[in-house]
Amino acid sequence: MAEVRSISTTTVRTASPVGESVDRIELTPWDLQLLSLGPIQKGLLFLKPTPSQQEQLQRSTTTTTIVDHLKSSFSHALDFFPPLAGRLGITEHDDSTSSFFIDCNNAGADFIHAVVDNVTVGDVLDPIYVPRIVHSFFPLNGLPNYEGISKPLLAVQLTELVDGFFIGCTMNHAVVDGSSFWNFINSWSEISRGSHSISRPPVFDRWFPTGVGCPIRIPFTLKEMQDTFFPPSLEERVFHFTKAKIAALKAKANSETGTSTISSLQALLAHLWVSVVRCQSISSEQEVRYTLLISARGRLKNPSLPEGYFGNTVHPTAIANTAGELLEKGVGRAALEMNKAIALQTSDEVRNFWKCWLENPKLLKMDAFTKNGLATSSSPRFDMYGNDFGWGKPVAVQCGSANKNDGKMTLFPGVEEGSIDVEVCLAPEKLVSLGEDKEFMEAVTI
User: Fold this and answer.
1) What is the mean pLDDT of residues 85-110?
2) Residues 106 and 85: beta-carbon distance below 8 Å
3) What DSSP letter does each residue of 360-416 carry, written as one string?
4) 388: annotated active-site residue
């Protein structure tokens, strides 16, 4: 397949910041734990506008091309999110500890215009496995979050295909979580459609555990933050689950366990977990794990997090079982264990988790998430398909190469209401086996 050619790179800065002035934002424990991981990389695939859409777009803006239109609206969106135009700041202390903050210095975000010849929207969507060229649609590949001290916290690459555009966004994960990431994208598309305001203004006040002084010092130098993990050979495939198929999985899981509390998503993830384990040749005594990266938004009380909280709220929780017991007791039992584990993540539990973390800070490592199991990130609740930049909604959502490992599951809403897409990242032989597993594929719509 053809190579992506970079046409131009522009440093975009805020011109007229909106709202309360902010110069420095301290990183919370939620943020600090992610310094060694990679950024969030999500992108939207669009068909090129029809002649009538192009004409309408030109009437509503002073720009003449889609590239200029998106670059201009990107700059206006940054006015509402000035931290994303900054850099990470670091103070290395004499006791070998470090503290980090967001320096809102308006150093700028990157906007890259690129072109790939002879590649169509169908070339991206039609193959069974995600084409490797998709990873080239994203900027800042291979950079850990702590590199934000010298690299942009936000970079966007607009890649022009034969018949479409791909907007690939890379955002520092020590600065934002998925909710904050999509709030920026939603706001950018809103402005791109002609709005002068945004529906959900970000709130830059940070949440810290009670009694914690700022800045927080962590016992790591930059050198010690380097993650030596190198992922094995991997393939990615997107599986589509309709609303009806998900409802059937939910009904089956609740029926098997004699309850009504298991959610649609818990049933779907349990189906994935059991299926992946079933497709592997592993000992029945081997421990298998499922790590859920859940959000603490809506969980914290007294005080609760405000709407539009800007930053991270990623709260990891894991369940474990032996492979034999997981397969023997099936999807219903696995879903019920997920349900109980999530229900335990109360406001008090979240606060206690961070109290213990502050006593013994640890940085998350990529291989720890998926060791002997699976890990899920992102959410089908995020508004991805509502992002119309002025000529129509996206036809697909894709993600980049950051934070990928054998066992990483990424969740997206499907195009149809109530459906869910899951990008499954596994070793090639495991992914082939999963795709040939009749019981798993009965729930999948091709």
Assistant:
1) 94
2) yes
3) S-----HHHHHTTEEEEES-TTS--TT---SS---SEEEE-STT--TTEEEEEE-SS
4) yes
- Of all helices (H) and strands (E), which one includes residue 325? helix 323-343
240 is a catalytic site residue: no
Question: Where residue 63 falls among pLDDT bands split at 50, 70, 90?
Answer: low
> Does residue 215 have a cis bond before it (omega within 30 degrees)?
yes
CA distance 221 to 36: 11
CA distance 170 to 143: 10
Q: Residues 144, 148, 152, 154: what is their CA dihedral angle, to the nearest 10 degrees? A: 70
Q: What is the pTM of this model?
A: 0.95
Of the residues 79, 227, 367, 388, only one is catalytic, namely 388
Q: Are 242 and 445 in contact (CB under 8 A)?
A: yes
The one catalytic residue among 69, 173, 271, 315: 173
DSSP state of 132: G
Structure tokens that stand for 113 in this block: 């215009």
Q: Tens digits of per-residue pLDDT, 404-444?
A: 999 999 999 999 999 999 999 999 999 999 999 999 999 99
